[in-house]
Amino acid sequence: MDGIQFGMPTLIENRTLEDNIALCARLGLRFIELNMNFPEYQTDRLEETDCLIQCAEKGGLYYTIHLDENLNIADFNSLVSDAYLETVRRTIDAAKKLVCLRDRYGEPDQPVTVNMHMNHGIFITLPDRKVQMYERDFETYMKSYESFRQKCEEWIGNADLRIVVENTDGFRDYEKKAIDCLLESPVFGLTWDIGHSKAVGETDVPFILNHKEKLCHFHIHDGTEKPPRNHLALGDGEIDLASRLHLAEERHARCVLETKTVAALEKSVAYVKKL
Q1: Pick from 161, 110, 118, 158: which is nearest to 7 by CA?
Q2: pTM score, whole prediction
């Protein structure tokens, strides 16, 4: 596994960036994925790039970024979607200034990643079925993603950044078409969250492997299918971790050991070292 750079997520047990950096350095990990679901990593804080760089230099590490899981660039309310688009624009602007850390402490041929989820949108419950509004108004939905792709290309420009789409609880058919649209652009790629895919019966695996050449980021944690569980320490679940890590190495992809506790992260780091 020498070809893989391992990092850690933002952990809720650590109240400050400095706490996360100290843990990352102690465990010998290379980067931290800053999670914008946390109040301390909102756009106004990410824009304080001088401070972020100074803190990272003390630990000899760099950053990737995880966008807010509620991100919904296709919301039918333009006031809402515009706010999310502006969030992405500002995040990209900050990430561009943080690439220098990757150049110093990471692999120069691995783009800095900004991770995003697909928002399913709302559904309407009928007596006999549920209707996804994005599926019903698919043309409007796709126009939003076509516009998003174009905007991201403009915002990123020539910077060595990649927006990577992560699987969560199973891609909907309309989402797969939107992702196909995004992947037509070189500024987009895929994140494989191996725990999420395990917990939903690996339903996303065929789609992900059909786009294997776009894989550049992994969220690595163990999980089970029945009952559905993920974010377990490596070795505590049922996933064939060796094969997943082999693919990550093959793709020269970056891997976040995405457990939720310090203890599980420590156990996962020990597991990786044994490999």
Answers
A1: 110
A2: 0.96
